[in-house]
Amino acid sequence: MRVAxxxxxxxxxxxxxxxxxGGASHVGFVFFPQSPRHLTFxxxxxxxxxxxxxxxxxxxxxxxxxxxxxxxIETGRLDALQLHKVRGERAAxxxxxxxxxxxxxxxxxxxxDLDQGRGWKGIAQRLVYDARTPAGAxxxxxxxxxxxxxxxxxxxxxxxxxxxxLSPGNVADAIGVTGAxxxxxxxxxxxxxxxxDVDKIAAFLQAVARS
Length: 211
Ligand SMILES: O=C(O)c1ccccc1NCC(=O)[C@H](O)[C@H](O)COP(=O)(O)O
Fold this sequence. Notes:
This is N-(5'-phosphoribosyl)anthranilate isomerase. About 30% of the residues lie in helices and about 25% in strands. It has helices at about 15-20, 40-50, 65-75, 90-100, 110-115, 170-180, 200-210; strands at about 5-10, 25-30, 55-60, 80-85, 100-110, 125-130, 160-165, 180-185, 190, 195. An eight-stranded parallel β-barrel has the order 1-2-3-4-5-6-7-8, surrounded by four helices. Strands 9-10 form a two-stranded antiparallel sheet. Strand 1 (about 5-10), helix 1 (about 15-20) and strand 2 (about 25-30) form a beta-alpha-beta unit. The ligand O=C(O)c1ccccc1NCC(=O)[C@H](O)[C@H](O)COP(=O)(O)O binds next to strand 2, strand 3 and strand 8.
């Protein structure tokens, strides 16, 4: 079965088209003003209108309030919400109010970090294993990877995606080592922070399709 791929942090029609044409299963729209990939609601609306029904639109948020979520869901026509730095109770309230699948980002540095995933059963639909970033840095999109061997033998409580520091050059290895059925990339398909590169997107998706 083909490995699903989310290309995250898209912000132009050309790079969105490259992701869709290359076979991405999901595209990620970031709603976090501190990020170089942050989308205005107008931009999100324009991009969302170009995404076919077979491709999922995932909104990426850092501890968002309801007003941001409501506007982003409406303009970005979101199919799922990826949440960073959100506690269980708050996430449950978001799920109850907005009735969309939750993808929870788990920041990984040690094997013990993986265990946090167990608390999300019954609240989230997917875990996104990403590398823990330094204090004060963005919680994602930093091109940092964790030790994939930490996933060896781990019994995953939920469907999961592998994220953090993936690139066209290492994604096949990453899939081979971890057995991931879904991968997520942002800076590995950029030429500068926030600037996606159509050739890198195509190369990444080709590498995934070959694995
Ligand atoms: O991408 C961002 O700017 C971002 C900002 C704040 C929270 C999350 C963010 N991205 C989340 C993602 O899903 C990225 O694809 C993931 O962290 C992997 O990024 P990278 O290591 O650059 O491939």
